[in-house]
DNA sequence: TATAAATATTCTAATATTCGAATATATTAA
DNA sequence: TTAATATATTCGAATATTAGAATATTTATA
């Protein structure tokens, strides 16, 4: 087996690591199909504390799975990375 | 955000967890495009001890990322899971 | 059967991840 | 400016992951 790096293993490892948790995969998957951005609502719907959700969101941001921007009082999280979008799309096809 | 489980979060979490390691992602990705099945060669090429490679292969098998069958003296590992194939294909497209 | 080759398992120390409690920061509105 | 709301950060205990050394198992062949 030859490890010819025609893909960026480290980059995808980071992405998969970010998606490799039920809470984070749920967040990312749902953000793909709904334009939801309220951290507190995520916290309520997932039944997980707000600080914990924020930590998961940070991991997703660091892996470039999510982007964020402030919208008034709230932070809006989105899936914009085309590599991530391609992966997440496969899950329901 | 509503968590309408139209995908199996646990199943994909397991898959992503398996792929979320540089060694395992390299193995899975390469097995997609080459029909390589020799554990010792993987060990040599990756520069990782054979027991460690075997442990990674077990994780990949448990996540149903890889299948295996004996071929004489050796064990042949393959990517056959269509869900995994769809995901891995996206990485180089 | 005995030996070699290929692969798997067990064990353990080092490191990483996970969660929520407590707290901090940032923004909006009174 | 103050209070309320939304989000982020820090910390520590519990748990999980990682790697390789040592060993075991399985198969092929002499």
Topology:
Two copies of one chain form a homodimer.
Chain A: H1 9-19, H2 22-33, H3 39-46, H4 50-62, E1 67-71, E2 74-78, H5 82-91
Antiparallel strand pairs in A: 1-2
Chain A binds a DNA duplex (30 and 30 nucleotides) through α4.
Write a short abstract of this structure.
Chain A has about 90 residues and is mainly alpha-helical.
If you had to describe this structure to a student in words, what would you say it looks like?
Two copies of one chain form a homodimer. Chain A is globular. Chain A has helices spanning 9-19, 22-33, 39-46, 50-62, 82-91, and strands at 67-71, 74-78. In chain A, strand 1 and strand 2 (74-78) form a beta hairpin. The N and C termini of chain A lie far apart (31 Å). Chain A has one domain: Arc Repressor Mutant, subunit A, CATH 1.10.10. With 93 residues, chain A is mainly alpha-helical. A two-stranded antiparallel ribbon of chain A has the order 1-2. The A-B interface holds A 1-3, 6-7, 9-10, 12-13, 16-17, 19-22, 25-27, 29-31, 34, 36, 38, 41-42, 45-46, 83, 86-87, 90-93 and B 1-3, 6-7, 9-10, 12-13, 16-17, 19-22, 25-27, 29-31, 34, 36, 38, 41-42, 45-46, 83, 86-87, 90-93. The structure holds a DNA duplex (30 and 30 nucleotides).
């Amino acid at each position: 087996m030859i490890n010819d790096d025609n893909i960026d293993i480290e980059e995808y490892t980071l992405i998969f690591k970010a998606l490799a948790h039920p809470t984070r995969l749920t967040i990312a998957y749902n953000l793909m199909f709904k334009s939801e951005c309220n951290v507190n609502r995520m916290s309520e719907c997932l039944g997980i504390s707000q600080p914990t959700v924020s930590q998961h969101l940070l991991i997703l941001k660091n892996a470039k799975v999510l982007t964020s921007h402030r919208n008034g009082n709230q932070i809006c999280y989105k899936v914009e990375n085309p590599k991530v979008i391609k992966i997440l799309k496969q899950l329901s096809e």
